[in-house]
């Protein structure tokens, strides 16, 4: 989807010519020199892109926090195990019980970090699906065909292909998160029995899978964003000197006066 001027307007665009997200996909180039109605339509897509990207990054953040909390649990379990045997060689239940409060706290924090993750994933998927619709409308209205063609030449499958790559990674991670959430009560039961060996055997692989899937999602976000932005600056008019730039300078001057 390249930058095709179809309807020009003398109305300022309020700086949207540079409204590109840090790690977004940008279903369209910024709405410069478009009539107000068309610019508003494009802005909807830009907002949707920002929401989708934000929710995706929050998903990755949640997973990293959960992994860190479970490593804290591992530390506390090891410390509890180390103090389980008294100087006389007997099981010191009192010492273990005292340490178990920390074990439970860090374990609970693991799942507290994931409490809103599925909602973040679902919102991101919804917005990426909406973005595909916006992209189709843009093409139907004769906008940004150069951008789309450039993405296809790069083997990305167009904007829809890039959005689908993020959706696929989000869905994979959602399965990992939901599996762990179902395991939570079983982990609590195991810890209450001081069966630390079974705890490690139960959680180590699923948590590693969570970490790998979160990394894959983040890698796809960065990769796609770099491709999208590189394509954007190649085919879109990102120059200064238009009406929006003039208005912005006037607004800054007025605020200082």
* Rg (CA only): 25 Å
Q: How much strand?
A: under 5%
Instruction: Give the total of domains.
Output: 1
Structural class: mainly alpha
* Spatial gap, N to C terminus: 42 Å
Largest sheet: none
Query: Which residues form runs of ≥5 with pLDDT under 50?
Result: 1-20, 238-251
Helix content: over 70%
Shape: elongated
Question: Whole-number average pLDDT?
Answer: 78
Number of helices: 7
Give the beta-strand count: 0
What's the helix-strand series?
A: HHHHHHH
Annotate the secondary structure layout.
Blueprint: H1 36-82, H2 93-113, H3 117-140, H4 145-153, H5 158-192, H6 196-235, H7 243-256
Describe the model.
This protein is mostly helical. The protein has one domain. Helix content is 74%, strand content 0%. The chain contains seven helices and no strands. The chain has helices spanning 36-82, 93-113, 117-140, 145-153, 158-192, 196-235, 243-256. It is elongated, with a radius of gyration of 25 Å. 33% of the residues are buried.
Record keyword descriptors for this entry.
single chain; 257 residues; mainly alpha; 74% helix; 0% strand; disordered N terminus
Could you give a short description of this structure?
The chain is mainly alpha-helical. Helices cover 74% and strands 0% of the residues. It has one domain (16-247).
